[in-house]
Amino acid sequence: MAETIKMMNEKRPSRLEMSGITKKFGATVALDTISFSVAPGTVHALVGENGAGKSTLMKILSGAYQPDAGSMLLDGKPYRPRNPFEGRQKGIGMIYQELSLAPHLSVAENIMLGMEPCKNGIINWSEMHDRAEKAIGLFGHEELNSHQKVRDLSIGAKQLVEIGRTLASGCKVLVFDEPTSSLSHKDIRKLFEIIQGLRDADISIIYISHFLEEVAEIADTVTVLRDGCTVGTKNAKKTKPNELVEMMVGRDVNELYPRSVRERGEPILILNNLSGSQKPEDASITLCRGEVLGICGLVGAGRTELLRIIQGLDPVKSGHIKMATYFGEATPRQRWEQGVGMLSEDRKLEGLALNLDIADNITLTGLGEFGPAFFIDPGKQHDAAQKWIEKLGIRCRNTRQSVSELSGGNQQKVAFARLLQHDVDVLLLDEPTRGIDVAAKAQLYHIIDKLATKTKNNPGPKAILMVSSYLPELLGVCDRISIMARGKLGPAQPVSAVDEHKLMLAATGHNDLNEAQN
Amino acid sequence: MKKFNWSLLNRFGPALALVLVYLFFASLNARIGSLAAIETIVLQTVIVGIAAIGMTLVIISGGIDLSAGSIIAFCSVVVAYCMDVFSMSPFWAASMGLVAGAAWGMLNGVLITRFGLVPFIVTLGGLLVIRGSAKGLAGSIPINAGQTWLSDLLAILPADQKWQLIPPGGWLMVFLALAIAGMLRYTKIGRHIFAVGSNEQTARLCGVSVERVKVIVYMIAGAFSGLSGIMLMSYQEQGDPTGAVGLELDVIAAVVIGGGSLSGGEGSMLGTLIGALIMTVIRTGCQLNGWPPWVTQIVTGAVIVIAVGVDRFRHRRSTT
After folding, report:
1. Which residue of A has its CA nearest to B261?
2. Which range among A40-44, A61-65, A225-229, A513-517 shows the weakest confidence by mean pLDDT?
3. What pLDDT is attached to residue B177?
4. What is the pLDDT of residues A414-431, one digit of tens each?
5. What does the alpha-carbon distance between residue A75 and residue B245 come to, in Å, rounded to a whole number?
6. Which residues from chain A sit within 8 angstroms of residue B195, using beta carbons?
7. Which residue of A has its CA nearest to B317?
């Protein structure tokens, strides 16, 4: 049956044909003569490292960007949208990671926005709700009705509203950009069922994801992008994840993660049965100098909350924190003074002051060092920043350039430099490599490795607590790994005792690994 | 235990606040309950209330209009000027006032959308430009318009017309508020105003002409400020270029007390009128008790902050 469908599809012309697409931003070539075609009624995965050009390609498809060269055919007809609205009208639907809904409006209004059924400007509310109910009725979601306000919905339900909106506008190609990154396990299953239903309804799906297991499960075909070029297109069911990773990275994966021989030093941060107002529950950890301890878990498991409580950003409900010789709760300011620094997962919102320059951002936590009394000597500030720009290889014009003008990888290095400038002993890293390219990642891994390793130049190695959703990175960088699932933190285990498969099972709540050890 | 219905309180919160404030002053001085006192309260609410109808649209769309007070003064001058210098009939003079208000509003809207300027800055500039224009037009002194039927719009009703309960200007305010409330609920443009304020990017993606919606919103707001200026003219029987200074803040306060959110997407017509009434009740109540104006100011200021604080609290409760 599947074979016959496949053969039928092969005979039919492509739903979407992108050929020779090129896009430049200034001197950088984001996309270099990319060709990409999607058959009707198939799920086509698009994978690649951050910065490989996936989002740029999709923005050209949606009409948000105009290509510098190349052409597109939609159902055999030339397609060249001038803006996202035109793309949507022609049948391209986009489901973004950051959902684009109007939170104050009802489900029906969000689905029908811009095409409300009306006569002389007066809205026909009953028809509006009928049509919206029809669009979301396909999913059979029990807790969703067209009268609810969107801001009251869960993230999973919001995503359904967004899918419903693209269906109501009659889309032929539906693009999912990292749709599962913030969904629960149950919602992911539900989403996959829906995607299969859409495929059977002859809609073409483009599925962008970092999770290669998902790609193998849901996609028929997979195309790999690297550095703005197409590396290849494969049958998704028959291609092994390792093969895909090699295509994505373009080099042997092992080189990416340096790990020097390290010796665990004395304990510096000890958590005893620490609980927050909701998450985490009863977390206990002993973090030592000279080690990288990884925390593995899904988004929403309570990993960020744990780091925030340690840093003093969220209140402790019960349990104790002992940091070096200090005991008990502390404010974020006091934690910095005790030698604890946190790198936020959201560098745009929380991690950096985007409008300030590099020097201000790097020195923000210790401005007192730069002059007598409450004065700040800009020269000293500049010197301090310049040192880190050179050491970390931050690409910028000078220390007074605004951080908002830097690329993601360089922004992250600035955020990292703040911890180094403050010379903290304990580094709390929350998704330190999110949204940065492979080269920048490799550099960060090197820095982390150097910080945690005792050498002649680094007699007092740091203690690093690192949260990440990207398992290969945790396995490559950490000495020990703890798994967090639904607010509960498992015991730390040597990295040699775990693998990707075990970690994923435990993180998704198949708690064998944690329980076996308890 | 059944979950407390916060959405109900969200809807009727401002009305509850009005009742509480009213009962508070009634307990101090029973005179506030008389028909005459109620008539005065409505009378004094009309000028702020009418401008607040337009301001509600602006705030729902995620914008702000600081030039409202200046437009009110400008339009009151225009009406008086047309009657005094061109000897226009009151009807045509008032029409000119409306057109002038709408034109200023449209200019605000065009500057905001065409040049991508922030509403706060555009209308802050407008506040000064329009105030200056009003003074220039009037030669810096009030223009007398004389007594016409326009003056009856906002005057205490004569004894034989007490059956109307409140002056014609009050009824006009109520009627227009109903009309705009209907527009917000039942028309495409009304829902698009909410969509633009709630998430501008999404509205644009879905084919809502965000620029057109904004220009229309500022134009309507300008026209309502113009109408409010006509009311001011009718109340004072003169066009005063130095009148209504700072009134835009009362107008914005009325919208915010009534549940409008300065970040857009929220606001209601009923809430706005109640917000305007709350402020007048406080002023009248303080006067009836013989409290000095500075007390009135402190109380009004406190009520604005408390109203918004309670609103934020309710939102947190209803979303978690």
Report:
1. A104
2. A513-517
3. 95
4. 999 999 998 899 999 999
5. 62
6. 102, 105, 109, 113
7. A152
**What per-residue confidence (pLDDT) applies to B6?**
58
Contact (CB<8Å) A104/B188: no
Quick check: A292 pLDDT over 90?
Answer: yes
CA dist., res. A471 & res. A478, Å (int): 10
Answer yes or no: is B232 within a domain: yes
Q: Given this model, what pLDDT does residue B2 score? A: 45
Alpha-carbon distance of B275 to B254, in angstroms, equals 4
Which residue's structure tokens are 């969509």?
Answer: B195
Find the mean pLDDT for residues A380-406: 87
Cis peptide preceding B14, ω within 30 of 0? no
Average pLDDT over residues B255-260: 90
| B164-217 tens-digit pLDDT | 788 889 999 999 999 999 999 999 999 999 999 998 988 888 888 899 999 999
pLDDT of residue B66: 96
Cβ pair B207:A100 closer than 8 A? no
In A, which residues are within 8 Å of B59 by CB distance? none
Q: So what's the pLDDT on residue B5?
A: 58
| Same CATH fold assignment for domains A1-91+171-249 and A258-339+425-517 | yes
CB contact under 8 A, A113 and B194: no
Which of chain B's residues have a Cβ under 8 Å away from the Cβ of A85?
204-207
Q: How many angstroms separate the most distant Cα atoms in chain B? A: 70
- Give the best residue of B198, B268, B316, B317 to mutate against chain A (max A CB count within 10 A): B198
What is the count of residue pairs from A and B with beta carbons less than 8 Å apart? 69
Give B202→chain A minimum CA distance, Å.
6
B208: in domain: yes
**Tens digits of per-residue pLDDT, A319-342?**
999 998 898 888 999 999 999 999
Residue with tokens 């403050």: A422
Task: Kindly indicate the confidence band of residue A50, based on its pLDDT and cuts at 50, 70 and 90.
Answer: low
Task: Give the pTM.
Answer: 0.77
Q: Is residue B114 part of a domain?
A: yes
Would you list the domain boundaries of chain A? 1-91+171-249, 101-170, 258-339+425-517, 356-423
From the CA of B305, how many Å to the nearest CA of chain A?
23
**What does the pLDDT read at residue A4?**
47
Report whether the peptide linkage leading into residue B292 is cis, meaning its omega lies within 30 degrees of zero: no
Single-letter code of the amino acid located at A1: M
Q: Does the residue B161 lie in any domain?
A: yes
CB proximity A105 to B under 8 Å: yes
Q: Tell me if chain B has a CB within 8 Å of the CB of A118.
A: yes
d(CA A428, CA A293): 10
Tell me whether residues A85 and B202 touch, CB distance under 8 A: no
Please give the CATH superfamily to which domain A258-339+425-517 belongs: P-loop containing nucleotide triphosphate hydrolases (3.40.50.300)
Specify the pLDDT at position A517.
43
Calpha distance A413→A415 (Å, rounded): 5
Nearest to A416 by CA among A459, A460, A368, A448: A448
CATH class of A1-91+171-249: alpha beta
User: For residue A463, what pLDDT is reported?
Assistant: 94
- Could B194 and A121 be called an inter-chain contact, meaning their C-beta atoms sit closer than 8 Å? no
Contact A85 B319 (CB under 8 A): no
Q: Please tell me if residue A196 touches chain B, with a CB cutoff of 8 Å.
A: no
**In the predicted model, what is the mean pLDDT of residues B3-29?**
77
CB contact under 8 A, A85 and B203: no
User: In angstroms, how far is CA A65 from the centroid of its own chain?
Assistant: 22
| Chain B residues near residue A88 by CB distance under 8 angstroms | 205-207
Q: Which of B188, B194, B207 sits opposite A104 (nearest CB)?
A: B194
Distance from C-alpha of B53 to C-alpha of B177, rounded to nearest angstrom: 6
For chain B, the domain total comes to 1
Q: Give the residue from A506, A492, A487 showing the smallest Cα distance to A305.
A: A487
Q: What ipTM does this complex have?
A: 0.80
Q: Which residues contact A12 (CB under 8 A, 6 or more apart)?
A: A39, A40
